[in-house]
Amino acid sequence: MKIIKPTLLISFLFLILSINVIAYPSNLLVYPEKIQKISIAFPYNYLFDFKINYTVNIINKNNDIRANFIGSTLSSLFDLYFNDRKIKLDEKARENLVSFLFNKLAIYFQKQRSINNQFTFKDTFFEELDKKDFILFKTDKKEDSEDNSIIKYEISYEYDFKSSKIYIYCRKISIFDNQISEKNFSFDYKYLSFFNDFKNLFINNVMSFFLNQKFYNLEVELNTSAYIEVDGTVTTHFMDENYPSICELVLEEGEHNIKIFEDGYDPISQKVKLEKNEKITVFLNKKNTHCKLKINTFPSSANIKISNQFVGNSPLSIELPSGNHFIIISAKGYESKEIFVTIEDKDFEKEIYVYLMPINTTSFYINYSNTILTQVYNYFWYGCYGLAGSIVGSILYNYFNQFNNSSLYPSQTIGLYSSAALVAIGLISFAIFEILSLTELYKYYQFINYYTL
């Protein structure tokens, strides 16, 4: 395996020796019941998850309170851009990191002789060492807790008021290979552009130095809220109050696959090669979605115009794209009505009801009320006739049933079936016409409720 080199092999053998000889010497008789059963976690367990714990120390070099704004800006930039970033390690650094891990494991097993030690180890760890990136993470250190970070970042700053220059001094301490690196940066202080200038210096220089790779700022100008996916991973769902607006991404140097998508819009994918700070403009187009709109009117057969174009008579079903639509509904003897209908992207079917006011309102009320009430009256009596027929059929059924199997009435079976049919037809007629009567009453209620409010 590529990663197993002589130095690592020696470290691994030393680990095995520590576990079998030093931690549990063969010349000692150990009684399990006498072992103190405590639970102690391995402090560098995060390395097996390809994570590296780090600390940041921000220092005001001259203790000048007038320069405190630089420290607070640095702190916010670290919180904004630094955590969960990949750190690039070359082959030698990875070897040193693995050696450091083995040595710490050996010491851990020497000191902790408990059978309840919390220790996890993935079988694929060594296979992934050559190809998997390590991710930085920071934990808030408590005063009484042990510092288990293996990379320490120190960043000092000062402000020269005479020359209006800001100086940044960076120091990186790698505990796992005892390496210390330093680098200094500076830029001119300008009040109006201070934050942007400082942000660019932090991304392009400070982050690039601390993480061993170049970083650049990619500005994406959007016309709507959108999800942004970089190299197969969704990084953010950008939202703002006003559009167009700019979403900032801090990415490593090189080529990246950018995908931008949002519900109701056609997605856009493009490749971006970063060799400096860049800006791209992305315009998402709404999907060509349609909704089935059903228009019901009173009276029926009304003329319907959409965007001043005649489309048919009611009741009408028509497919319309999302957006606002101006509809005009008119009928002879009724006042025309103009309405706006809003169709959203999520709408697939929509139904509306439109009532037109008659021109001669008084006569219309009287005529329409008489028409509906007459229909209610007729349906009611039709139902009553059906009920009466079922009662007559029931009487005849009882009459024929008393002569069952009688030689005096050989045709009594025909009478039984006929009377039973009369009962069934009468009950069905009663139910149908009473339902129709109630339906007309409900229509009359809607009519009165609409035209009298």
Describe this structure in words.
With 453 residues, this protein is of the alpha+beta class. The protein has 4 domains: 6-163 and 205-210, no CATH class; 215-282, Immunoglobulin-like (Sandwich); 290-355, Sandwich (Immunoglobulin-like); 362-452. 35% of the residues lie in helices and 31% in strands. A 6-stranded mixed beta sheet has the order 2-3-1-4-5-6. Strands 9-8-11-12 form a 4-stranded antiparallel beta sheet, with no helix packed on it. The protein has a 4-stranded antiparallel beta sheet with strand order 16-15-18-19, with no helix packed on it. Helix 1 (6-23) packs parallel to helix 3 (91-111). The longest helix is centred in the last third of the chain and has 41 residues, at 361-401. It is elongated, with a radius of gyration of 42 Å.
Secondary structure blueprint with pairings:
Elements: H1 6-23, E1 51-60, H2 68-81, E2 86-87, H3 91-111, H4 125-128, E3 134-137, E4 151-160, E5 165-174, E6 179-188, H5 194-211, E7 215-222, E8 226-230, E9 233-238, E10 245-252, E11 254-261, E12 268-274, E13 278-282, E14 290-298, E15 303-306, E16 309-313, E17 316-321, E18 323-330, E19 337-343, E20 349-355, H6 361-401, H7 412-452
Parallel strand pairs: 1-3, 1-4, 7-13, 14-20
Antiparallel strand pairs: 2-3, 4-5, 5-6, 7-10, 8-9, 8-11, 11-12, 14-17, 15-16, 15-18, 18-19
Helix pairs in contact: 1-3, 2-5, 6-7
